[in-house]
Write a structure and sequence with these properties.
By secondary structure, this protein is an alpha/beta fold. The chain folds into four domains: about 200 residues, Rossmann fold (3-Layer(aba) Sandwich); about 40 residues, no CATH class; about 220 residues, no CATH class; about 210 residues, Alpha-Beta Complex (paralog of FGE (formylglycine-generating enzyme)), CATH 3.90.1580.10. β5, α9 and β6 form a beta-alpha-beta unit. The chain is elongated and about 125 Å long. The two termini are about 65 Å apart.
């Protein structure tokens, strides 16, 4: 978007500026003026900012310099009622002034020109002045009966003294006299009363003679009537009815008709429903309700206003905002200003890159859904929950942060807002963002002068700590959760973060797994997947290969699972090496425990024989390399468990940059077609096959190997007695008897 492209709040002044297809309306209404009967009052009705002024300006453009086949020509007068809202001069009088000014431009006789000048002089006089009447005395209050006394000395101390003498001791105190005396305010519309009939006849005659009989029409445009105070707005309407509803006269009234109807209802104090509507029906012969802009019109306007923005940003504004040109321009200006601010902060290194589509969504929420915006300041994750629902992922159980049970209710509160749900389906998603990253978008859109730290509910802050990827914060947060005795609730919420359809960022998924380990990971790492028998495409060459049905573990064997095995066999060696590189992976040989905080990590430093022994203990075996490959790639011969293109966000390989093993099952979007985790990267896995004597085949790649090693058909070799920090295993099983029969 060009740097200087901000949209002023001014009406369309020329057909070339018309981005909302108002020209067709202007043409039709202009034709009615030049060919229809008069008097006529046309109502241009629409809410604030809908383009009423722009349409009337375009009508003027269509009328200027044009004549019909009957040579009718328009004489135009523009009157902005709101311009005189704060003027002490009555609006009705200013309207008459403008009409008289317009008539003076005609080719008048000297007598008629003098008549107009005389009317103007009389209008300039203080026709609405307030005159003070004489002093009035409430004699009943003073005990003298019904009597009024006018004092020529009103307002003077001597006048009050005379009143006291006349009261002749009938009143006890001066305070009683003060209460009994008041000055009557007389609102005298001097000359207005005597001019009404004269103006009615005189103006009608002038318009008839100099305009209508000369194939012309006097067209008066009254703008911003609904912005005036009720009494002033009705003064204008009454003036039209009294003075200007004459042959040859056409009025265009721009207003929010509901606002005017309410004003009439208030003025006449009627409790009858429809009084305001009936009033307008009598005054306005042709109501024209500005139709809402179509989405295609809004898209064209936004594309013209902001050509440098992605098409998805255009869609967010077109689909998310009401059909209101003024609001649309205002929101675009806000968006551009925020972009400028963000670019400066990014250049200073105080802000990460901003996604233009996500920023547009937050700007729409801030401009149209104010209550939702306030809720987001406290519950940033709410936007992610709404997004899940909008993207048809509401079949997933919502992640409800314990202690924040209000969030599901808030989701239901806003889920019926169709424009909101629609824009949340467009383009970039909030799902991968952390709460603090969402908070940065909210900070950018906070009103100027109100920047403040994002206010989070204490439970939200605790949740942020659990997903912070900061071991210190995670440890403190899990301690707090245990103190509250809420481990089970938080663990359930954390497991939902790992769901593949939630697209949570890797940092959050890794944090969730770390937190789960400290709280007690409820995932079933013993889960087994049944693989049906049949052909699949095997090897790099994708040759058909037939397998009988079998079963295989969804996850690699974890440290916690292996610890149970070692408890059963106290003489069995623990995973351990003497080399320095193994320190982070070594088990305690005395306590026979795995490294702290690593219970849901894949077990490492196990030999082929030890892996085989564990498999036998659980009633299984190591998979053949054909079984392993079928479980990793499905039947279609894909290169990686998720498809044919490598993505470092879907597997823990050297390209992912993590530099160590990770808890199992956090690369949820990288699972295999049959739902197995970590079939690419993290750790190599022993198979039962050997390449040659005393050389075993391993599959799957690892955290310290490149992506090519994680291809479903790739393999490496290792001696069976090797203990490595990059080799683990998973268990395969023969099929259940009923599966074998199939």
């Amino acid at each position: 978007m060009p740097k200087n492209l901000f949209w002023p709040d001014r009406p369309i002044l020329d057909m070339a500026e018309d981005r909302f297809d108002f020209s067709d309306y202007a043409e039709a209404l202009g034709q009615i003026v030049l060919s229809g009967n008069t008097p006529l009052t046309v109502g241009i009705f629409g809410p604030w900012g809908s383009g009423k002024t722009s349409l009337m300006r375009l009508i003027i453009k269509r009328l200027q310099g044009r004549r019909t086949t009957h040579h009718r020509r328009a004489h135009i007068i523009w009157f902005n009622a709101w311009q005189y809202e704060r003027d002490e001069t009555a609006i009705w009088r200013m309207l008459l002034f403008r009409v008289l000014e317009g008539l003076r431009t005609l080719d008048l006789t000297p007598q008629d020109r003098q008549q107009i000048e005389d009317w103007e002089t009389r209008l300039y006089s203080d026709v609405n002045r307030t005159e003070r009447g004489s002093w009035q005395v409430d004699w009943p209050q003073l005990g003298k009966g019904a009597l009024q006394l006018g004092l020529s000395l009103a307002g003077t101390s001597s006048g009050l003294l005379a009143l006291l003498n006349l009261a002749n001791d009938e009143m006890s105190t001066i305070e009683d006299v003060v209460k009994a005396v008041h000055r009557k305010e007389l609102e005298i519309h001097r000359r207005q009363l005597t001019m009404i009939e004269e103006f009615q006849d005189g103006l009608a005659k002038l318009i008839q003679t100099y305009i209508w009989e000369r194939n012309g029409v006097l067209v008066i445009f009254v703008d911003d009537l609904d912005r005036c105070l009720p009494d002033r707005a009705l003064d204008v309407l009454e003036t039209i009815k009294l003075f200007l509803d004459v042959p040859g006269g056409v009025f265009f009234l721009a207003a929010d008709h509901e606002r005017i109807e309410d004003v009439v209802q208030q003025r006449y104090g009627s409790q009858d429903v429809g009084v305001g509507e009936s009033y307008l029906e009598k005054l306005v012969q042709l109501p024209f309700y500005l139709p809402p802009m179509e989405e295609s019109q809004m898209l064209r306007f936004i594309a013209n206003a902001a050509p440098g923005l992605p098409a998805e940003v255009h869609q967010v504004f077109a689909y998310g905002l009401p059909s209101n040109p003024r609001l649309l321009k205002r929101i675009l200006n806000i968006y551009r200003l925020i972009q400028e601010l963000a670019e400066r902060r990014i250049a200073r290194g105080t802000l990460e890159e901003v996604d233009p589509v996500l920023l547009a969504k937050i700007v729409v929420v801030q401009g149209r859904y104010r209550r939702l915006y306030q809720d987001l300041l406290e519950y940033p994750s709410l936007i992610q929950q709404l997004e899940l629902k909008a993207r048809r992922a509401d079949k997933l159980e919502a992640v409800v942060i314990p202690g924040m049970e209000a969030v599901p209710a808030l989701v239901d509160k806003y889920a019926d807002q169709r424009p909101l749900m629609r824009i949340l389906r467009i383009g970039s998603a909030f799902a991968p963002l952390t709460q603090l990253e969402i908070g940065s978008y909210l900070h950018l859109t906070l009103p100027t002068g109100q920047e403040q730290a994002l206010h989070l509910d204490p439970n939200q802050q605790l949740w942020n700590d659990l997903l912070s990827c900061n071991p210190t914060r995670i440890k403190a947060a899990t301690d707090t959760v245990r103190q509250r005795d809420m481990q089970a609730k938080y663990a359930l919420a954390l497991v939902k973060v790992l769901h593949k359809d939630r697209h949570a960022p890797l940092s959050e998924r890794l944090s969730a797994a770390w937190s789960l380990e400290l709280l007690g990971d409820p995932r079933n790492f013993d889960e087994i997947i049944a693989i049906p028998g049949g052909e699949f495409l095997y090897g790099k060459e994708k040759l058909p290969y037939y397998l009988l049905p079998y079963r295989i573990a969804r996850y690699p064997v974890t440290n916690r699972q292996y610890a149970r095995f070692l408890q059963e066999y106290p003489d069995f060696p623990v995973p351990r090496v003497t080399e320095e590189w193994g320190r982070a992976y070594n088990w305690d040989p005395v306590r026979r425990t795995y490294p702290a905080g690593k219970g849901n990590y894949p077990v490492l430093l196990v030999t082929w024989d030890e892996a085989q022994a564990y498999c036998a203990w659980v009633g299984g075996r190591l998979p053949t390399q054909q079984e392993w490959e079928r479980a990793a790639r499905g039947t279609d011969g894909r290169r990686y468990p998720w498809g044919d293109t490598f993505d470092p966000l879907l597997a823990n390989t050297r390209e992912s940059g993590l530099g160590s093993p990770t808890p199992v099952g956090i690369f949820t979007a990288g699972q295999s077609p049959d739902g197995l985790y970590d079939m690419a990267g993290n750790v190599w896995e022993w198979t039962s096959d050997e390449q040659r004597e005393d050389i075993k085949i391993i599959r799957g790649g690892a955290w310290n190997f490149p992506a090519d090693s994680a291809q479903t058909f790739a393999h490496e070799i290792s001696r069976p007695g090797n203990r490595a920090n990059c080799i683990g295993f998973r268990v395969a099983f023969d099929p259940e008897p009923r599966d074998q029969e199939l």
